[in-house]
Specification:
Strand order of the largest sheet: 3-2-1-4-7
Strand content: 15-25%
Distance between the termini: 37 Å
Order of helices and strands: HEEEHEEEHEHEEEHHHHEHEH
Number of strands: 12
Number of helices: 10
Oligomer: single chain
Length: about 325
């Protein structure tokens, strides 16, 4: 089973039969940029995905603008729609520039201002994990939960917190930056000193991203260097290849320890997982069976762990709703 499913094609005729709620969301990821238009019932009625121009800020801007032009051309009702965008980082509350992005070519750039200057109207930006959290808290896997933590496991690792259906950003705009806390002690094993793109060592992202999982596999004796993506590795794990089994089992242990930290600090009712690795079904049984070793409680953990109800559309849906906040 692949870890990412392509967006379903939606024809212009199908779009034209619906009453459009002018709300456009964009999910700016490390490998793809996705745009989705929501109708008045918050259903995705237009959706398109293109590759992210890596390491090129100007081309990234151009790609985002091209998606907005596409929806305006294909769905005339979208003209003048609000635009919200999830980004792999945060907007500095001091400078308004992007920081903490694992797509490092965005860091230090006034992304919001540059887009607004070209489009001539406001663009709302938020961390991509916060967008996932918002979508899943409103009408997804975390609906009706008073506290919900959302996790992205993909090219990078992120987290977002919703309380009573509202995004918590924090005093420094970094609430939920779980991917850049230290995974240490018994769980970290030989990867504790793995350098992170952020300049630190041992970050959760260096253990739990898709590339980190593949890297851990390649460090396992008898691994196959032709395996280059997590989906290939998961297939081998399911086929009981010893090296793949060792790497994926280590991944489950690391994820259990890392989520136990979240439970010890926030004690959420629900933890929702999005991103490409969220489609690994074994996570939802293996990790809760393991995390009790690190949770500071003498009773069975009531926190539920589940995949994003809206799948890979959840982040872009949350981005579309940013303008309502």
């Amino acid at each position: 089973m692949g870890l990412e499913q392509p967006p379903l094609p939606i024809s212009r005729r199908q779009v034209a039969t619906r009453s459009i709620n002018p709300r456009l969301g964009i999910d700016l990821g490390g490998t793809k940029i996705e745009a989705a238009l929501l109708d008045r019932d918050n259903n995705v009625c237009w959706r398109k995905r293109i590759p992210t121009p890596r390491n090129d800020y100007e081309q990234t801007i151009a790609a985002i603008i091209s998606l907005i032009h596409d929806v305006r051309h294909e769905v005339p009702e979208s003209l003048g729609c609000t635009v919200g965008m999830g980004i792999p980082g945060s907007v500095s509350p001091l400078s308004g520039r992007i920081h903490n992005a694992n797509s490092t070519w965005l860091n230090g750039q006034p992304l919001g201002k540059d887009l607004e200057a070209i489009l001539g109207h406001p663009v709302s930006l938020a961390n991509d994990a916060n967008c996932l959290a918002l979508s899943e808290s409103v009408d997804g896997a975390g609906q009706n939960a008073s506290t919900m933590f959302a996790v992205i496991l993909g090219t990078g690792v992120g987290g977002g917190l919703c309380v009573d259906g509202k995004i918590i950003t924090g005093a420094n705009g970094i609430a939920g930056e779980w991917g850049h806390t230290l995974l240490g002690g018994k769980a970290s094993g030989v990867l504790a000193q793995e350098p992170c793109w952020c300049g630190k060592y041992g970050c959760i992202e260096t253990h739990l991203s898709g590339p980190a999982l593949v890297r851990a596999y390649h460090q396992t004796p008898q691994s196959d260097l032709t395996v280059v993506c997590a989906s290939q590795l998961i297939e081998r794990y399911r086929a009981s290849e010893p090296a793949a089994h060792a790497a994926v089992t280590q991944f489950f242990n690391h994820l259990a320890c890392a989520l136990a930290m979240v439970i010890n600090i926030i004690d959420p009712e629900v933890i929702v997982i999005g991103g490409g690795l969220s489609q690994v079904d074994e996570i939802y049984t293996e990790v809760p069976n393991r995390w009790g070793e690190w949770i500071f409680s003498d009773t069975p953990t009531k926190t539920r762990l589940c995949p994003a109800a809206h799948g890979d559309a959840s982040g872009v849906r949350g981005a579309a709703w940013l303008t309502d906040l």
